[in-house]
Amino acid sequence: MLIPFLSTEAPFAILLMILSGALIIRPLIAWRRSLMNTGVFFVACLLGDLLAGLLEGYMQPAALRWLREMSIFGEGLAVIRYLGLALFNVVLPRMRVHISGILADILVIIGYVAWGFLRLNLAGMEFSHLFATSAVLTAVVAISMQDTLGNLLGGLALQMDNSLEIGDWIQMDDLGGRVSDIQWRYTAIVTRSGERVVIPNSHLMKNRYSVLCNKRQAVPQQRRSISFNIDLSVPPARVSAAILQDIQTARIPNLSLEPQPQCLLLDFGPGFARYALRYWLVDPGPDEVTDSDVRHHVLAALQREGIRLAVSDQTIHLVQEGEAHREEVRARELNRRLQAISQIDLFSRLSEAEQLELARRLVNAPFARGDIVTRQGAIAHWLYIIVSGEAEAWWQPPDGGQQRLLEKRGPGSLFGELGLMTGAPRRATVIATSDMEAYRLDKAGFEHIIRARPELAEGISAILERRLSHFQALETGYAEDKPGHSASQGSEVAALGKKIREFFGL
To answer: pLDDT by residue (tens digit) across 142-199?
Structure first.
């Protein structure tokens, strides 16, 4: 057997390596390469210990003693490494005791140093000489490695007082990102552009930084704010109501509704009032993307209400070419509205003059992606014509069941025609699935046409009946009209015609 040729410490080292290795080999599978390197180092030291025993009597005793002491010292380092991993990464976590990684590394290093002092003492060097020598070395090292020691102590302080943790979002001057790692020398953060920035711990300890999102806070989200200017003639209550109604009902990714968004009047400028919309982000990462989405909704909400963003008062001298250009723009817009109306079967019975009059009464109504265009059960006497973009119609069963998607609508579609013609409540909730441009037609815009030609009510009622039948089929889950439905078509037409006449007072 080879054991007689090993040192007396070797069997204990082998036993400790086997026991600690059995504890850490499965839980620390990610450390496999490091564990393998330590194991190879231990085997190499063990072979050196064995070689010193085999060559005894064949080489000078001093050389063999030096080889054996170095081998035993290396074996001890490997054992301390395995024991440290087993204690700090397996045993203590199972006991629900967690310590910082830097503190664990420091304790392992102290174990290395203590093992070195012990081997030197067993080799014949007295502790008094060791401490005197180590004190001098410590002073020299402390002077020559001030920055390194500052980083070490800074990293230890950051983890001990929990002022900074992995996963926190921080902002330091013009640098911001999520903390991905805290080591004994540096703290690493990943910026929003994906860059990994290494910051010395001593720099963090000496300078101020802001923790944007701390997972230990009661409200872990980050607050954002965008500002905009509105003409002084617009009442502040109207601006706040339009903005908050849109933001609180729209489906904007990464925007938190708790705490609730706020629309505040901040200041007054030359001819305008400055407002700010404050809201919270669920994830601070895509902050600029979320800000852009919010601006889309703010602009669309203001345009729907006929509220324009204001600029400073200026005096502008217009020339004849400018007026001609505006006339050209108005004509182009009017032609665009006529094209939108001509595609709608509901207005197919109107004359060219009536369609032109109707086009002049359309109101521009843009919606941002996620906006609630109409809400089921609401009463509103207008309809929308989609010019660009898409929307979805969702229906809520009367028993309060889960919402179901009825249909998707794109350019050339309209919705809200029953509300315009009969005053009936909205039959579905319509949500914009993309930025959508639409025109709105109010009851007053169509009332004078149908009053002038009451016979239009019958033709329009037939078109509405077909749309109503289709919608009822969608509600019941069928793709086409139910069998036998055509038998009652005449009564439905008569009923809708009567409602149209009553609604417009014909």
So the answer is: 555 555 656 666 666 665 556 677 888 888 888 888 888 877 678 888 888 888 998 8
Could you tell me if 394 and 406 are in contact, meaning their C-beta atoms sit under 8 angstroms apart?
Answer: yes
- pTM surpassing 0.85? no
Q: H helices within 98-145, ranges in order?
A: 101-122, 127-144
Q: Name the pairing type of β-strands 363-364 and 372-374.
A: unpaired
* Amino acid sitting at position 212: L
Give dist(CA 252, CA 370) in Å, integer.
6
- Quick one: pLDDT band at residue 49, thresholds 50, 70, 90? confident
Q: Which tokens belong to 177? A: 């990102």
Indicate the domain borders of the chain.
3-144, 163-213, 222-304, 344-504
* Fold exhibited by the domain 222-304: Alpha-Beta Plaits (3.30.70)
The HSE-up count of residue 316 (CA atoms within 13 Å, CB side) is: 8
163-213 domain in CATH 2.60.120.10?
no
Architecture per CATH, domain 344-504, reads as Sandwich (2.60)
